[in-house]
Amino acid sequence: MQSIERPADIIAKTASNDGIVKNAWYLAAWSDEVSQELLPRRIAEEPMVFYRSSDGTAAALLDRCPHRKYPLSAGKLDGDLVQCGYHGFRFDTDGTCLSVPGQVKVPLSANVRSFPLVEQFGQIWVYPGDAALADPAKIPHVPWTSEWWSTTGLSPLNARASLLIDNLLDLSHETFIHPGIGSPEVAETPIEVERDGDVLWVRRKMYGVACPPNYAKSSGLTSPIDRSQEIQFFAPGFYVLHVRVAAAGDTGPGHLSKVVYGITPETKHTTHNFYGICRDLPRDPHKRPFSGQRITVQEDKEALERLERALVADPDNVPEVSIGIDRGGLLGRRMIADLLRKEAQD
């Protein structure tokens, strides 16, 4: 594992890259979103339709009938077959066209593309690129802790995925954007950065600092506290934040939480922001412990959509300046650029 201490070359040379990596697994849906109804969703510029067959197996097809390109999601599910709503072409979960109207012979070119799909830990992953390269072993394996409180959500983001990645890899913005979880020490505390292949670690440890309102509410702690943030980023689009808070000087396990983000590009300027959180809180049906997380997601959404509009309106006039707190985000950009370069060479 390589320790990154002073990536001056990255700060000097790396600009934001907004290309979409196709040969990668992306979080496409939470399991409870996909049923025996047709769900349209664009992933990495590819229009897809998701559904479950009668045995509960999830499938993903290109959301276009090869006959006249009508969206299959505007058709219906007839048993285990998707029937186009325009001329009635019928497809199985592999995308094989089984029947067409008015003739017995089905043209070989009438098949529709199916996408590699894996379901695990309540997550549905899809591979929009070259199916021959879709290795399930490369899907990030981050199971929920089932005994903990947990929730998931999806916040459509009208901004490019690279902006959300920058945001999540540089948590110093908590001090200024998120009053519920931020404190002055977040922006002032140095980070440690490590890269291990396509996985990036960014760590920040704070001792004897102020207890933000959300942590006081969820844990019962008061200032001062010790808190740590350990980011685990799986390029190009999955993120886990491991959080610990405890009374200052407490060397025990403290209060733990795990926050995940599936950063899935929809188009070059829009993103599916899948988020989830679990905490080691005692289960209480009368408590709603995650309202703060939803507020945090909304605060980021407002900031990033404002930034996207500014970049679209004036993309080149103001040069970008980076500082030490950007080391994690800049290395994340480099990792995605490496994946794009590799994809272009394959």
Q: How does this model look, in words?
A:
There is one protein chain. The chain is an alpha+beta fold and 346 residues long. It has two domains: 214 residues, Naphthalene 1,2-dioxygenase Alpha Subunit, Chain A, domain 1 (Alpha-Beta Complex); 104 residues, Rieske [2Fe-2S] iron-sulphur domain (Rieske Iron-sulfur Protein), CATH 2.102.10. It has seven helices and 18 strands. A hairpin with a 6-residue loop joins strand 7 and strand 8. The longest helix has 23 residues. It is elongated and about 75 Å long.
Question: How do you describe this structure in short?
Answer:
With 346 residues, the chain is α+β, with helices and mostly antiparallel strands.
Explain the layout of strands and helices.
Layout: E1 2-4, H1 8-13, E2 26-30, E3 39-43, E4 46-52, E5 58-62, E6 76-78, E7 81-83, E8 90-91, E9 97-99, E10 117-120, E11 123-126, E12 149-157, H2 161-169, H3 174-177, H4 184-188, E13 192-196, E14 199-209, H5 213-219, E15 225-234, E16 238-247, E17 255-267, E18 270-279, H6 291-313, H7 327-345
Antiparallel strand pairs: 1-13, 2-11, 3-4, 4-5, 6-7, 7-8, 8-9, 10-11, 12-18, 13-14, 14-15, 15-16, 16-17, 17-18
